[in-house]
Write a structure and sequence with these properties.
The chain is mainly β. The protein has one domain: Lipocalin (Beta Barrel), CATH 2.40.128. About 0% of the residues lie in helices and about 45% in strands. It has no helices and 12 strands. A hairpin with a 3-residue loop joins strand 2 and strand 3. It is globular. The termini are far apart.
Length: about 140
Protein backbone atom coordinates (compact mmCIF):
# COMPACT_ATOMS: atom_id res chain seq x y z
CA UNK A 1 0.00 0.00 0.00
CA UNK A 2 1.22 3.44 -0.92
CA UNK A 3 -1.83 5.34 0.29
CA UNK A 4 -3.68 6.12 3.47
CA UNK A 5 -7.13 4.74 4.34
CA UNK A 6 -10.18 6.88 5.15
CA UNK A 7 -12.63 6.15 7.96
CA UNK A 8 -16.35 7.03 7.96
CA UNK A 9 -19.41 5.52 9.73
CA UNK A 10 -17.42 2.55 11.07
CA UNK A 11 -16.03 1.77 7.63
CA UNK A 12 -12.33 1.71 6.74
CA UNK A 13 -11.82 2.54 3.04
CA UNK A 14 -8.55 1.27 1.56
CA UNK A 15 -7.14 0.90 -1.94
CA UNK A 16 -3.93 -1.01 -2.43
CA UNK A 17 -1.68 -1.41 -5.43
CA UNK A 18 -3.55 -2.86 -8.44
CA UNK A 19 -6.63 -3.50 -6.31
CA UNK A 20 -10.17 -2.23 -5.98
CA UNK A 21 -11.19 0.32 -3.39
CA UNK A 22 -12.48 -1.77 -0.46
CA UNK A 23 -14.39 -0.99 2.73
CA UNK A 24 -13.97 -3.02 5.91
CA UNK A 25 -16.61 -2.66 8.62
CA UNK A 26 -15.56 -1.99 12.20
CA UNK A 27 -17.48 -3.97 14.83
CA UNK A 28 -17.59 -1.71 17.88
CA UNK A 29 -18.71 -4.53 20.20
CA UNK A 30 -15.60 -6.64 19.44
CA UNK A 31 -13.26 -3.74 18.67
CA UNK A 32 -12.18 -5.44 15.43
CA UNK A 33 -12.62 -4.99 11.72
CA UNK A 34 -14.32 -7.64 9.61
CA UNK A 35 -11.70 -9.66 7.71
CA UNK A 36 -13.64 -9.55 4.41
CA UNK A 37 -14.66 -6.31 2.71
CA UNK A 38 -18.34 -5.37 2.97
CA UNK A 39 -18.18 -3.65 -0.43
CA UNK A 40 -15.70 -2.94 -3.21
CA UNK A 41 -15.50 -1.04 -6.48
CA UNK A 42 -15.46 -2.75 -9.85
CA UNK A 43 -12.60 -0.43 -10.84
CA UNK A 44 -9.04 -1.46 -10.00
CA UNK A 45 -6.44 1.20 -9.33
CA UNK A 46 -2.97 0.50 -10.75
CA UNK A 47 0.27 1.80 -9.26
CA UNK A 48 0.33 3.62 -6.90
CA UNK A 49 -3.15 2.57 -5.74
CA UNK A 50 -5.55 5.11 -4.26
CA UNK A 51 -5.96 7.28 -1.18
CA UNK A 52 -9.69 7.92 -0.73
CA UNK A 53 -11.35 11.06 0.65
CA UNK A 54 -14.91 11.22 1.94
CA UNK A 55 -17.53 13.95 1.88
CA UNK A 56 -20.84 13.65 3.74
CA UNK A 57 -23.56 15.40 5.65
CA UNK A 58 -22.60 13.98 9.02
CA UNK A 59 -23.48 10.29 8.96
CA UNK A 60 -25.52 10.43 5.73
CA UNK A 61 -25.00 11.06 2.01
CA UNK A 62 -21.41 9.83 2.06
CA UNK A 63 -19.39 10.03 -1.14
CA UNK A 64 -16.00 8.37 -1.46
CA UNK A 65 -13.68 10.24 -3.80
CA UNK A 66 -10.89 8.22 -5.41
CA UNK A 67 -8.25 9.57 -7.77
CA UNK A 68 -6.71 7.28 -10.39
CA UNK A 69 -3.19 8.64 -10.90
CA UNK A 70 -1.83 5.62 -12.77
CA UNK A 71 -1.04 7.74 -15.85
CA UNK A 72 1.39 9.96 -13.95
CA UNK A 73 4.38 11.09 -15.96
CA UNK A 74 8.02 11.73 -15.30
CA UNK A 75 9.89 14.83 -16.46
CA UNK A 76 10.56 13.30 -19.90
CA UNK A 77 6.97 12.07 -20.29
CA UNK A 78 3.99 14.24 -19.44
CA UNK A 79 1.76 11.19 -18.88
CA UNK A 80 -2.01 11.24 -19.08
CA UNK A 81 -4.97 12.64 -17.18
CA UNK A 82 -5.91 11.89 -13.62
CA UNK A 83 -9.39 10.38 -13.29
CA UNK A 84 -11.55 11.37 -10.33
CA UNK A 85 -14.19 8.81 -9.27
CA UNK A 86 -17.14 9.33 -6.91
CA UNK A 87 -18.71 6.29 -5.22
CA UNK A 88 -21.66 5.85 -2.88
CA UNK A 89 -19.96 5.37 0.50
CA UNK A 90 -22.59 2.84 1.62
CA UNK A 91 -22.22 0.72 -1.55
CA UNK A 92 -18.95 0.98 -3.47
CA UNK A 93 -20.45 -0.95 -6.39
CA UNK A 94 -22.36 2.26 -7.21
CA UNK A 95 -20.17 4.72 -9.06
CA UNK A 96 -21.98 8.06 -8.97
CA UNK A 97 -19.71 9.87 -11.42
CA UNK A 98 -16.20 10.05 -12.85
CA UNK A 99 -14.29 12.75 -14.69
CA UNK A 100 -14.27 10.86 -18.01
CA UNK A 101 -18.06 10.64 -18.44
CA UNK A 102 -19.04 14.12 -19.66
CA UNK A 103 -19.18 14.89 -23.38
CA UNK A 104 -16.31 16.80 -25.01
CA UNK A 105 -13.97 16.11 -22.05
CA UNK A 106 -15.79 18.76 -19.99
CA UNK A 107 -14.66 17.28 -16.65
CA UNK A 108 -11.28 15.90 -17.73
CA UNK A 109 -8.50 16.59 -15.27
CA UNK A 110 -4.97 17.63 -16.12
CA UNK A 111 -2.11 15.17 -16.25
CA UNK A 112 -1.80 12.98 -13.19
CA UNK A 113 0.66 13.43 -10.35
CA UNK A 114 1.70 10.31 -8.45
CA UNK A 115 0.34 10.16 -4.88
CA UNK A 116 -2.11 13.06 -5.37
CA UNK A 117 -5.15 12.94 -3.07
CA UNK A 118 -8.56 14.53 -3.70
CA UNK A 119 -9.22 17.23 -1.11
CA UNK A 120 -12.79 18.04 -0.05
CA UNK A 121 -13.63 21.52 1.27
CA UNK A 122 -16.68 23.81 1.19
CA UNK A 123 -18.72 21.58 -1.11
CA UNK A 124 -16.00 21.20 -3.71
CA UNK A 125 -13.35 18.61 -4.54
CA UNK A 126 -9.84 19.81 -5.39
CA UNK A 127 -7.37 17.77 -7.42
CA UNK A 128 -3.76 18.76 -7.97
CA UNK A 129 -2.44 17.86 -11.42
CA UNK A 130 0.87 18.37 -13.18
CA UNK A 131 0.10 21.97 -14.20
CA UNK A 132 -3.23 22.91 -12.60
CA UNK A 133 -5.53 22.57 -9.63
CA UNK A 134 -8.86 21.18 -10.81
CA UNK A 135 -11.95 22.23 -8.86
CA UNK A 136 -15.07 20.07 -9.05
CA UNK A 137 -18.47 21.09 -7.74
CA UNK A 138 -22.10 21.32 -8.74
CA UNK A 139 -22.79 22.91 -12.11
CA UNK A 140 -24.87 26.12 -12.13
CA UNK A 141 -28.58 25.59 -12.79
Amino acid sequence: MFGTPAFWNNGLYVGGLSDQLLVYTFNSSTGKFQTSPSSQTSTSFSFPGVTPSISSQGTSNGIVWALDTSQYGVPKNSGGPAVLHAYDATDLTTELWNSTQAANNRDRAGNAVKFAVPTVANGKVYVGTRTTVEIYGLLPQ
